Amino acid sequence: MKVAAIIPAAGLGTRMGKASAETSGTSRKQFMLLEGAPILIHTIRKFVAAPRVTEIFVALRQEDMEPFQRQLDDENYAKPVGIVQGGRNRQESVGNCLARVSADADLVAVHDAVRPFVTVEQIEQTFDEAFEHGAVILGLPPVDTVKQVERKVIQSTLFRERIALAQTPQVFRSSLLLRAFEQAKHDEFIGTDEASLVEHLGEDVRVILGSDRNIKITRSSDMALARLFYGEQLAARHSPDLAPDLAPDETSGEISGDLPETSPTKGISQAQ
Questions:
Q1: Would you say residue 95 has pLDDT above 90?
Q2: Whole-number mean pLDDT of the chain?
Q3: CB proximity list for 71: less than 8 A, separation 6 or greater
Q4: Is the N or the C terminus of the chain less surrounded, counting Cβ atoms within 10 Å?
């Protein structure tokens, strides 16, 4: 099995705010330093470590391509990591990378640049599921009650059992994802994630249980949690009793909520 990984990292990260830029030297979350390395580098390392990933493409803004290439050269990865110019939105950025994917790739995995705590085990699990079913994402059941609101007035209370908070990686058979992008372009449809494009085709996307440690670093306050998780990840790697790349409480697989191991997403996925 050959898997191409796509990491869109051309966003502006406006939710981080000015305070984080002053302390980190950057205003965009994917380039903020986590223990001496940009968050994006930590994320790429996870996919380099995944045995079945054969190539990686990172979408960047044009002005970031040359300086980040120097950082990639310093990493000296054992797998090819290509830099692709991003587009006006996530969908265009992923599409630009998709055009570079090798024709013999069986699967394409798309992962958020600022989710550095996904584990290799989780990545490989999504590959198995996607190879069998065609499309899969990681997801979590919501902990809080979810309300549907219009003009600040509650319209309904949604059943948590039918809601999944979408995570990444989102993995698809290459032919299916290509078809989804082609149809979206034809219909001028803009999705919130890659799964929504496949849903737009009328195809099922399955959900497997993600992790509450697979956080998307979006706000300045997330960095404190990221540093905690990173420290625990290092400790786990040096412990003979824990699997490599796992933080201590991920070995049990216990996560609150009752999302089944696999379930279809039609009408229930919600981006996180």
A1: yes
A2: 86
A3: 38, 41
A4: N
